[in-house]
Amino acid sequence: MLQAVNEPRVGAAEVVRESHLAAFRFMLRARLLDDKFAALYRTGKIHGGVFLGRGQEALSAALGVSLKKTDVFAPLIRDAAGRLAFGEPILDAVRNYLGSALGPMRGRDGNVHRGRPRDGYLPMISHLGAMISVVNGVLFARRFKNISGMVGAACLGDGATSTGAFHEALNQAAVEKLPLVVVVADNQYAYSTPTDRQFACESLADKGVGYGVASHTVDATDLTACLKIVGGAVAQARAGNGPQLVVAKLLRLCGHGEHDDANYIIPELKNSALGRDCLKVAEEFLLRNKFTDAAQLAVWRSETIREIEEAVAQVQREPAPDPYAENWSAISSEHLNETHLENGH
Amino acid sequence: MATEITYIDAIREAQAHALRDDPRVFIYGQDVAAFGGAFKATKNLAKEFPGRVFDSPISEDAMVGFAVGAAIEGLRPIIEMQFADFSTVGFNQIVNQAATLFWRTGVPCPITVRLPFGGTSGGGPFHSQSLETIYAHYPGLIVLTPATVEDAYSMLLEAVAIDDPVIFCEHKFLYRHLKAEKLPTEALPVGKARIARVGRDLTIVAYSAMVQDALEAANELLTEGWEVEVVDLRSVKPLDTDTVMASVARTGKLLCVGESWPWGGVTAEVIARVASEGYGLLDAPPQRLNAKDTPVPYHPNLWAAHRPTVRAVAAAARKILRS
Ligand SMILES: Cc1ncc(C[n+]2csc(CCOP(=O)(O)OP(=O)(O)O)c2C)c(N)n1
Ligand SMILES: [Mg+2]
Fold first, then answer.
1. Coil, strand, or helix at residue B6?
2. For A269-303, how does the pLDDT look when each residue is reduced to its tens digit (9 = 90+)?
3. pLDDT value of residue A215
4. CATH number for the domain including B146?
5. Chain A contact for B167, CB < 8 A?
6. Domain finish residue from B145, B180, B215
7. Which atom of ligand 1 lies at the shortest distance from residue A165's CA?
8. Predicted model pTM
9. Would an 8 Å CB–CB cutoff place A177 in contact with chain B?
């Protein structure tokens, strides 16, 4: 049965091959980058947490390759693949994790909290659900400025669908008929909380009905399905058919963060179809269909590892933020800063 | 025939002015479009500026998030909270999204969040709150508290022009209580306090509606021979400590009055600054006067006693003056 889902059914063969290879390479890059962050974490080289996207790469990459550079993207903690596909350089990710002063957040924020708002790449705040309405605002502003044809994507997990912010924002997008795609990675756990303590509906996709939002469900262990369903939802939004909700089924193949051994994940899930590793599934698929060969895969792998190692080596030589040179101003209107707080000591 | 302009007219006019002058401005809030807002602060603006004034769902969190997104794209949203009290539902987006954006990314967040705030009798616990203190506590926000018709107009115009998130606290009691003959053509900039009344015996620092109570108390005290100076802070963040300090240097005595709750807050901040930086200027312990430490009551008898009244301000002033 899984076999059937795995067969390409759409488009000219070459297009299918190209799109799979493009997405796969981002999946691979993300996995190797995540592995490096995990290794750096274990050797104490990273301040704070490390959050991996292991098992979520197919979904995230499929979204990233479906977006154009002029679109809007608000990824979340497990979206290394989507970020890379949307155009984030490996160097930005490494700089942010290592707190480089040259990174996108200049050491003021770290790890997965990174982005470049001016490029439509929104940096998440930690508060789950909070980025969706920001994407709505960007999309609204573009429409206000008569810019059309764009899409905004916001990612979140099963747990985040329980927030008020999620509800408010999805309803808002529906009312405003915005070209929003919300991608929910239903990875069976929110930190340690299983989905039966998170929601009581049959499927999270049911929630779309209540908002008047089109819903889609996808097996996120299957890259082909992700490309089709996520790409289709993005196309629907782009075509002016309003907000789209994609609920993707998978299992988180790591701890919540690298501090967490995730001993609460039940073996039944690990051994189920949901527990498959999307990267392995995709790799087998590419080989079986002769989209590429093992030698090429090995080259991609070693090239990426070299690129990551070089980035880490470079960033480790870069300056850390200097508290004495830091501009301790939280506002851009510097003339409106307080002059009687102990700011400058 | 001189037309009368109220505080709420000034707020409406400032928004009309901003919409007219700056194509990046739009208004988003509950019932603000055809209906013109719960207090009529946006009356006819949807008609005069088609495609610029939008009703929002009852979703304060999403309203503010939406404004932040629009600001990232270069627009200048004005968000109307129907009552300041409900801004707590959008609190997360205000203090964590809007207030951190510039510092985290270098991209400014020019949004204005209008909070109809403060007590009117009959409002009760959830339509009366004064929240300037909690917003002022967060880095990254500007918090304005105009006390006059002129300031309501000029400070709202400036709020929209400021490149940072502004919490604009407009007092519901002042909406129709204050009147002016014309709108100002020039104004003190945001960040400068104003000497609302000159006096040599005591400085009363106040903001928003409490400026009116302080001025009335000063009148009462004048009949007893005391000359009280009243400083209108205008903006609580930034807080113009220099003007306060200069006034205290003249009078040697300080009373700070606020309508919000007593634990911490703007009055405590003013006293702390004067005590630490201007200790030598004081010839009596500085005092402060706030609302009672309970939710805001409904019944007029209770409500009037909950917030500082003119009598309470005058009594507190007398105590310092006689010390
Ligand atoms: C509003 C909010 N509450 C709590 C947290 C702490 N927190 C961070 S991630 C997380 C679990 C998220 O689960 P889910 O949304 O399913 O995403 P996943 O980690 O599974 O990808 C929690 C509780 C938070 N970041 N934001
Ligand atoms: Mg989850």
1. strand
2. 999 999 999 999 999 999 999 999 999 999 999 99
3. 98
4. 3.40.50.970
5. no
6. B180
7. 1
8. 0.96
9. no
